[in-house]
Amino acid sequence: MHMRSSSRPLTPVEVATCGILSSLAVVMGVISAVIPIYGSLLKIAATVPLAMIAAQTRRRSITTAFFVVIVVATAIGGFTSGINIAKSALIGLVAGAL
């Protein structure tokens, strides 16, 4: 039985790319919640790594990165940080998919 290209598991390169770029987005999101002076700038900057994920990889890795970013940001920075990064992630993923 042959698997379709969309149903194969994530490759190690996709996992590494999503991990590195997602962690960069989480760091920017948590710092934006802690330092309110540059908060808006960091929220905007947090969309860039997720837009890069959406532009380079498949839909499965985009979905995985989206949920991982939200869970990790909520675990590290609290509910407010999780909500902020969820907004940034959604904007970044839509912009990257276009």
Quick recap:
With 98 residues, the chain is mainly alpha-helical. The protein has five helices and no strands.
Protein described:
By secondary structure, the protein is mostly helical. The chain has helices at 12-34, 39-45, 47-56, 59-77, 79-97. Helix 1 runs antiparallel to helix 3 (47-56), helix 1 (12-34) packs parallel to helix 4 (59-77) and helix 3 packs across helix 5 (79-97). The longest helix is centred in the N-terminal third of the chain and has 23 residues, at 12-34. The mean pLDDT is 87.
Tally of separate helices = 5
The portion of residues forming beta strands comes to under 5%
Helix proportion of residues, in percent? over 70%
**Gyration radius from CA atoms, angstroms:** 14 Å
Mean pLDDT: 87
Oligomer: single chain
SSE pattern, N- to C-terminal: HHHHH
**Ends distance:** 33 Å
Q: Would you tell me the structural class of the helices and strands?
A: mainly alpha
What's the topology here?
Layout (H helix, E strand, L loop, with lengths): L11 H23 L4 H7 L1 H10 L2 H19 L1 H19 L1
Core attributes:
98 residues, mainly alpha, 5 helices
